[in-house]
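Students often ask why inverse folding is considered easier than folding. One informal answer: many sequences map to the same fold, so there is more than one right answer. In these notes we will look at a single instance of the problem. The structure comes first.
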């Protein structure tokens, strides 16, 4: 059971344009209190690095350029460095790292990916398929997660073999083959924040404040999203503050 601590307010903050129309002679100012000034400053650049990305997988390997040149499967790609694109595909070396450039058409955005040597491909496959954020997705989602940032000659076949041979994916119930239940009409939402959907995400890599989970909330009417960091996900600790009034309905998968 979820417990709720409500904080009712008069409404959401209005935009600058609305406030200027109501108070034409007023000006907006920012005040720093003594309590705020005593807190240590937050470096946005350093805090953003706490968010895990696929590029962090290869970041510890400073010998990536050496691994690339020693990999025989990447030799044809090195030979094409500096040549014009063929079928929208070209190659370049940036900071010693071999990268693949691909554009679907002449006017499409060029997608740049890192060429992964064979010695690191299992690491990339494991991260894209088995990490907490991946959740053992199928071939399509795993392939999309990899191909947006990495590439190698046999990437599609390797992803297919990896996802189809995953032990956990084989022993879990195959819900995709179950007969789908018939659609049921969903009542129209009358007001904003009348019906909200909630879910729990985690466990995630620990943040600097020791947060490990996220409670996500989405308003069905406006698709407004909230994410509340949590240190634990026990029934006693899971609570969110409703700034715009309590919702009438809460939809959850009870997970």
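Output (designed amino acids):
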């Amino acid at each position: 059971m979820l417990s709720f601590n409500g904080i009712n307010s008069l409404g959401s903050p209005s935009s600058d344009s609305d406030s200027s129309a109501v108070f034409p002679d007023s000006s907006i100012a920012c005040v720093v209190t003594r309590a705020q000034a005593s807190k240590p400053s937050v470096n946005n650049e350093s805090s953003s690095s706490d968010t895990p990305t696929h590029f962090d997988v290869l970041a510890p390997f400073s010998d990536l350029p050496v691994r690339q040149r020693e990999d025989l499967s990447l030799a044809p790609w090195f030979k094409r460095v500096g040549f014009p694109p063929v079928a929208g595909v070209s190659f370049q070396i940036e900071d010693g790292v071999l990268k693949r450039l691909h554009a679907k058409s002449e006017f499409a955005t060029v997608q740049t990916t890192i060429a992964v040597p064979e010695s690191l491909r299992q690491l990339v496959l494991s991260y894209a398929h088995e990490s907490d954020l991946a959740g053992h997705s199928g071939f399509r989602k795993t392939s999309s997660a990899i191909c947006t940032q990495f590439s190698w000659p046999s990437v599609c076949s390797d992803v297919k073999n990896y996802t189809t041979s995953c032990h956990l994916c084989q022993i879990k119930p195959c819900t995709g083959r179950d007969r789908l239940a018939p659609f049921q009409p969903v009542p129209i939402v009358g007001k904003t924040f009348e019906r909200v959907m909630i879910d729990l995400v985690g466990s995630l890599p620990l943040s600097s404040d020791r947060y490990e989970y996220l409670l996500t909330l989405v308003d069905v009417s406006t698709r407004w999203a909230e994410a509340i960091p949590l240190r634990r996900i026990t029934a006693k600790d899971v609570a969110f503050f409703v700034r715009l009034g309590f919702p009438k309905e809460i939809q959850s998968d009870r997970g």
